[in-house]
Amino acid sequence: MTVALIGFAAVLILAFMRMPLGIALGVVGVIGFGELSGYRAAISNAARLVIDSGQSYGLSVLPMFILMGLLVEKGGMAKELYRAAYVFLGHKKGGLSMSTIVSCGMFSAICGSSLATAATMAKVSMPEMRRYKYHDSLATASIAAGGTLGILIPPSVVLVIYGLMTETSVGKLFIAGVLPGLVGVIFYLLAVKVTVARNPDSGPAGDRSDWAERLSALKDVWATLGLFLFVIGGIYVGLFTPTEAAGMGAAGAMLIAWQRKTLTIASFMDVLRDTAATSAKLFMVLFGALIFSNFVNRAGLPDGLINIVNSFDASPMGVVFIILLIYLLLGCVFESLSMILLTVPIFAPVVEGLGFDLIWFGILVVVVTEISLITPPIGLNVFVLKGVLKDVAIKTIFKGVTPFWIADIFRLTLLALVPAISLFLPSMM
Q: What's phi and psi for 67, nearest 5 deg?
């Protein structure tokens, strides 16, 4: 166990020295395994993992969903989703912020990326909120917080990676993310309500839309929402596997973008290049994480942690809350993917050994990872937003996200105490 802890510390040091995380995990994993079982065995084991994982059929789901998300982003669907949400909610106090959160939820459901959701919705919704003189703190916070839904509401790249690392069903993880994602949207809407109630000037009401405008807006989004229902519904009823669903989703997104004439040959080639580059980066960190996972298992870290837990006589749920607290602390200094790759190989066996469902734990991990995206000082969604809105101070955004961060803590606690919210839909498959 001591060797594993030294290895974990070495990864952290290398990461803080700006070494790419995938390389740091792989190097430490090979050296650590070599010290325990010989370097010939370590190199052979690493090579076998990379080859076997690279040829895995299940891994092809990643580039397909990445391609789908990029096509959706290029297809200009964000504006239509925002307008659909706005005509129903815009006339309320804080209604434009609520519209932003709902449209972020819908956009993330077919995009799968928190950072892309935040960057795209900033360009769509921020001009409208400024036109109605929304305070920058509330306007930017609703975009940053709404963007975090991208890694939970399926399809989610992070859930795919978690499923591959823990050998749990990606399809069940996707379905498990639906209800917690909706709970997240509701809690964020309540956060807007509380913010506006405390300071009515922060979110003035917009114009009321009539039913003709509402029906017209709904007509514009039927294809986008239909694509989501087709992909997720197909997985739920067993019509196709997650990998097949990813291919169908990418093809559907391409057809929608082509039908709307928003996709040219040049932009399509850009999408393919971005898909290849993003997939390669994810594969590198995933392979590194698998090598590191083999090392910590060989070193006996999960068993050692279970023995420590038993020695303290802590309740199983108490252990889970301690793990979640560790995640919250790590979220202050690590971005979301790094947290998952570093910690899941260590914590997942412990949680499974305590008798908990790994699908439920996966949802908790993703939710607490969402929180890290708006947690200072590293909150990536905040910095992405700052990159798009250069005239807004970082401290203004972080101040605005505080009510949303508190809402996320309440949501995390609820999901931890009521596993049925996450497990009800998967249990029906």
A: -60, -45
**Cis peptide preceding 377, ω within 30 of 0:** yes
Q: Which pTM value belongs to this model?
A: 0.83
**CA 373 distance to own-chain centroid:** 9
Dist. CA 395–CA 114, nearest whole Å: 20
Distance of alpha carbon 92 from alpha carbon 78, whole angstroms:
21
Give the integer Cα–Cα distance in Å for 123 and 78: 10
What is the C-alpha to C-alpha distance for residues 256 and 261, in angstroms, rounded to an integer? 9
What span, in angstroms and rounded, lies between the C-alpha atoms of 331 and 348? 18
Report the distance separating Cα 49 and Cα 235, nearest Å.
Answer: 28
CB 150 within 8 A of CB 111: yes
Per-residue pLDDT reduced to its tens digit, 175-190: 999 999 999 999 999 9
First to last CA, the chain: 39
What does the alpha-carbon distance between residue 318 and residue 350 come to, in Å, rounded to a whole number? Answer: 13
pLDDT in tens, 367-383: 998 888 888 776 777 87
